[in-house]
Structure formats: C-alpha cells, structure tokens
Amino acid sequence: MGSVRARAAAGATVVVALALIAAGTAVLLVLRGNLQNQAGLQAEVAAREVAAQLATGTAYGKLDLPDGDDHPVVVAADDGRVLAAGEDVRAVDGKRVTGVSGRAGGVAPSGDDEDDDDDRALRPGEVDDDVTYRDGSADVDGTVAAYRFAVMEAKDTRGEQVTVRAGSALAPERDAVGSVRDAMLIGLPPLLGVVAGVTWLMTRRALRPVEGIRGEMAAITASTDLSRRVPVPASKDEIGRLARTTNETLAALESSVERQRRFVADASHELRSPIASLRTQLEVGVAHPELLDVPGAVEDTVRLQRLAADLLLLARLDAGERPAGTRVELAAMVREESSQRVADRVPVRLGELAGGEVAGSRPQLARVLTNLLDNAQRHAVSAVRVAVVREGEGIVLRVEDDGPGVPEGDRERIFERFVRLDDARARDDGGAGLGLAIARDVAVRHGGSLGVRTGSVFELRLPVAG
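Structure (tokenized):
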C-alpha cells in the first residue's frame, strides 16, 4: 500500500463494495417484503373464495377447495373441529387436521394471529372483513413447506361460525430472493475487480504528470542545474497548479542562489582591497618601520571592520532574523543620533519631529538612519534635513539633501547589494554599496518600506506600534 494508486484503488473498491452491499441488502429486503405481501394477497383471495362459498350455503363436503400444493385450506369450527380441509392437507404447523383428505374430523391448528378479541357477532351468510396473516408450515401429501396464511371468520347459512385458513406457498418468494442474492454474490467480485482496475488506470493517468514532476525534480537535484523547470500539464487542475508553483519555487531558488553567489563574489572582492592594502602597509612597516603609515593602516582596519559588520548583519537578515518587539520613539532616536554626528561635512538639520512609537529593534532602526544620513552626506551640496511625520496609521522618517538626486531609472537599483552609481568614485568615498541594501532589508523586517520619493528624498515608512 505504499503507492497512491494502490491506496486509491483499494479505497474505491471498499467504498463501492460497502455501497453495493447496502444497496443489495435493501433490494433483497424490499423484494422479500413485496413477495410476502403478494403471497398474503393470494392466500386472502383463496380464503375469501372459500368463505364466500360457505356464506352462500355450500355444504362442507361440497366445497370447491384449491389445490393443496398451492393453497392449503382448513375450515374449522369454534370448538376446534375441522369441518373441511384441502386435498392432501395433512397437518398445519405440525398439528394434524384430517385423517382422510377432504373429510371432516381431526383438530384445528391454533392460530395466534386469529382475531380472537373480535366480539362482533356475524349474521348467517356473512363474511368478516378483517384478515390476519402469519407465516407457518403445512404438510401436503407428506411434503412440509413454508406458507403465508390468511385467516378470516365467516358464518354459514345455518348460523355456525367458522374460521377459514388458507395458505400461499413461500417457496417461490424464497427462490426468487435466493436467486437475486446469488446473482449479486456472483456479480460482486467481477464488478469490484472492474472498479479496482478502472480506478488504478484512472489514478495512474491522473498521476502521470506528478511522476513527470518528480522525475524532473530528481534530475534537477542530481545535476544542481536550477535553470531547469518541471513540465506543466495542459490541464488547469491541482496538478497543473502544483507544477506552476514548483517552477515558481525553482525560479525563486535559482534567483536566491545566484544572488548568494554574486554576494559572495562581491564580498570577496570588497574584502580583498582593504586586506591587500593593510598587508602591504604592514609588510613595509616590518622592512622599514620609519615608512609605516599608521593612520592609513588604522583607516583600512576600520573600513574592514565596518564591511565585516555589514556582511554579518546581512547574513542575519537573510537567515530570517526578526527584530525585537520593543517600542522605539523615532523622534527621540533621531535627536540622539543626529546630536552625535559632529564631524559631518554638512550639518544635519532637524525638521518636524512628530511623536510616535514603532515596534522593533532600536539598534537596527538607528542603523537605517545612519546609513541614510551617510548616503545624504556623500551627495549633499550644503544641506541635509531629517523629519518625522505621521501619515494615517503609519509614521514616516524622511531624509533629504540638496544634491543632484537619484535618476528615476536607478531608484530601485540603488537598493541592490554592492551597487554604486558612480563607478569612477573612489571606494573610500563611496563605500561598499551595502548601506541602502541593509536599510531596506531592516525596513522590510520591521513591516515597513524604504524608497525614494523624489530624486533626493528617502522615506522610511513604518506602522505605528499598538
């Protein structure tokens, strides 16, 4: 049962088997009930014919009784004497009714279903309309069989009240029920086999695209070629959606792996320059201590330290690190961080500082502000301005400068890692191109966004806490 096809076939077979058994049982019960009612109706007709003869004055010995094999009849008096019985009828329910077929004598069989409580007196020549039914057995010419008996009261023309009991054989009913049952039992296994086979084939056909998807995924895993895609069936069902979702996942994975490779390559390239510069200075210092450029070595070390810190933060963000849920007052943070920037080339001016708290990590949000201010300092001519404003259910941190601004076509590209628009600019002045990428990642992790509204205005939008 390790196969989906096997489980589906087995499940469908079990369900169909249970349904057929329930339906077959219901059919047999209805058929049996109808045949029993039909036998009871035939017995009633036979009993009424005999009762009608008695009501019209026909003598007991001259009654036209039906054949005992089909409809055994017994006419009995109130005291139990058998007044007449059908041909060859010897016993009913194991009690003898005649010594000689068709002659009076013997003891009438007891009838538990007779209407003994009916106290209404019948007039001579009248037949009671009430009929009771019961199942029993009768011995006809030495053969005992099951019958459906109809029992009714009548009064002959002489005023003697009698009980007429007529039966109808149940053998045809039982034979018919048995034949239907046997046909069902014989036909059930082949039908279940057909159901299992059709379900197996249909499930195999339905799962064929899934097998194709699995095979292609196995090939992709073995080859590590993420540019490959699984086949998409033409049908617009769950399997088609699965194939499309799988391809979307592969595309996202390919993009992520490519981004990771590019990140590693760019990081290695960025680390190589300060490390090489620092190594050169140290080697010169070892050979000629008087030529050692200590400030340059310190500067390279600081640059290397900042780059390592940026790479570590990006690694934590890529790993899905979520910020702490502490509340941060943005206006207070802006005042504190701005007051510490005393060595900036362009003084930072504070605009509107609206009150409002956001949920998140203060160090990470402070890092966003620092990166935005550093970016503004590199491009500003004479002014850098910071403001905090409330807009609806959110709060906006706005940083702007009076520099040339970012071209419209580059307003998204600048947030990519290791991207510097001015390739001719010195690395020491332009940085490694990670500041804005880190700032946007932190903004997204805080449930907000970071973008360029106009050429030189950067806006950090965050939801208000609580």
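Residues 171-223 form the longest helix (53 residues). The first strand starts at residue 73 and ends at 77.
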